[in-house]
Write a structure and sequence with these properties.
It is built from 5 helices and 7 strands, in the order βαβαββαβββαα. By secondary structure, the protein is of the alpha+beta class. The protein has one domain: Maf protein. Strands 4-3-5-6-7 form a 5-stranded antiparallel beta sheet. It has a two-stranded parallel ribbon with strand order 1-2. Helix 1 crosses helix 4, helix 1 packs across helix 5 and helix 4 crosses helix 5. It is globular. Bound molecules: inosine 5'-triphosphate. The site of inosine 5'-triphosphate has 20 residues, from strand 3 and helix 3.
């Protein structure tokens, strides 16, 4: 089985990508390559942060790798929290803090349209490539469901009645922003004969 280093400190992302890949690749976590660093994410774009994380590992640990940066873009909030999704309620905020802030800001908004956007940056033999996955949906008024992470309890993808946190993880991992981006990554890896 081929190894792929995933430049993330988020355990939920690793679990999801493992489930999306269904055993065709082995995901290597940062701790397995001896990296316990807090990787900087200072870009103002999702693409920029994905690349910053992947480059950090490539440059400091000499490893081909990929990184995922994801944002929730809410139309009524002019695309916020977007690239700031992890620290929407402030530096060090929890998933719960961020959801509380989002629901508060959305309290009186009629337009509930939003989307998750994932950008994967892949560095392979020094080449940098990007893969995007987007899923449109709506922000509901109160959280529902206990699986998933982040904003999953308040996001219902278009065409479904359940939030990402209510649906079985296998369904989220079939249709999600991350699944769409990972599928493009896998196609590129296969094309390259890796
Ligand atoms: P790494 O940078 O170490 O990969 P992170 O948690 O900081 O992990 P991001 O900056 O990409 O990752 O994530 C931004 C936030 O967006 C994250 O903290 C979650 O709150 C949210 N998020 C990301 N993916 C999500 C998903 O699939 N479902 C719900 N919320 C998600």
């Amino acid at each position: 089985m081929k190894n792929l280093v995933f430049a993330t400190n988020n355990r939920h992302k690793i679990d999801e990508v493992n489930s999306i890949l269904t055993g065709s690749y082995r995901i290597i976590s940062l701790s397995e390559i001896g990296c316990f660093d807090d990787i900087p994410e200072t870009s103002e774009t999702i693409e920029g942060n994905a690349l910053q994380k992947a480059r950090y590992i490539f440059e400091n640990y000499q490893q081909d790798c990929f990184a995922d940066d994801t944002g929730l873009e809410v139309d009524a909030l002019q695309g916020r929290p977007g690239v700031y999704s992890a620290r929407y309620a402030g530096e060090g905020s929890s998933y719960d803090d961020n959801v509380v802030k989002l629901l508060e800001e959305m309290k009186s908004q009629a337009n509930r349209n939003a989307r998750f956007r994932t950008v994967i940056a892949w560095i392979s033999d020094g080449r940098e490539l990007f893969f995007e996955g987007v899923i449109d949906g709506a922000i509901i008024y109160e959280r529902r469901g206990a699986s998933g992470f982040g904003y999953d309890p308040v996001f219902v993808p278009n065409g479904y009645d359940q939030t990402f946190a209510e649906m079985p993880p296998q369904l989220k991992n079939k249709i999600s922003h991350r699944a769409l981006a990972v599928k493009k990554l896998v196609d590129a890896i296969l094309k390259k004969g890796k």
